[in-house]
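Reproducibility note. Readers wishing to regenerate the assembly model reported in the main text can use the exact inputs given here. Chain order matters: entities are listed in the order in which they were concatenated for prediction.
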Amino acid sequence: MIVNGKPAEDFAGTLLEYLQQHGYRHDCVVVERGGEIITHEQFACVQLQADDALNILHFMGGG
Amino acid sequence: MDDIFQLGGKTFNSRFILGSGKFSLPLVQAVTEQGGAQMITLALRRANAGGQENILDFIPPNVTIIPNTSGARNADEAVRIARLARALGCGDFVKVEIMRDTRYLLPENTETIRATEILAAEGFAVLPYVYPDLAVARALVSAGAAAVMPLGAPIGSNKGLLTRDFIEILVHEVELPIIVDAGIGRPSQACEAMELGCAAVMCNTAVASAGDPAAMSRAFKLAIEAGRAAYLAGPGRVLERGAEASSPLTGFLDD
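Running the prediction on these inputs yields the following structure tokens for the assembly.
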């Protein structure tokens, strides 16, 4: 997989499980997979694939 | 009389929009509270694994989140960021900022109009950051913008209202709230923008780079309120030349 632009180990499980196991605040992130937006409600339904490219995004300070 | 500010279908009492960049997270909370800000801008970026603190934890619950599209170099990227930000569930506001110029950070007005049109059609309350240009502002009205956000000076410069006369044209000619964004460095400059009739002022660096950011945030709050009050009061006229005594010139030593 590619996560946030960097190679990452493949993960057998759902997106929600991936986020939880890697310490992301899943209530504070939105994920883009292959250009598609995946919202909080969908995290538990999305099975990750070896060829996935994910952007895991959150708010931070900005003007 | 209550002086409320309506923007994007919401009602606000504060006309101070705070940018949240360059602060520690606890300071975000302090400057928001001290400034009485009811709107705050945020950026969308990649999250790090293992990060538990989130800026949303430090923003008071009554404050409206305005995601920005910083990093976007064209309309398509801005639209992408706006859609992702809305998916985070913080409402329909978006501040569209599109820049290719990395030295002066000047906005791409044409791309901004295009992004505004797309996002407004999708139900966003679009706040486009632009160089103050009347034709551009009119195009933004047609595109469905909720306000126009002209720059006072380059982002982060603290140089003040360098574009004052052009912002004033927008205030007089455009039927949308004019919100000065970028470049405001001192409360006196925010006050001046409000005296001109701007609907609100946005600041970030001016507060973040102050010796005491929380105290400076409060100073901006007071200045913005003062400027608004002066605008509503109707500033007095300016003499082209000469003087006009405030005290009677007769009645004592003139005989």
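We highlight two features of this model. Chain A has one helix and five strands. Residues 15-21 of chain A form the longest helix (7 residues).
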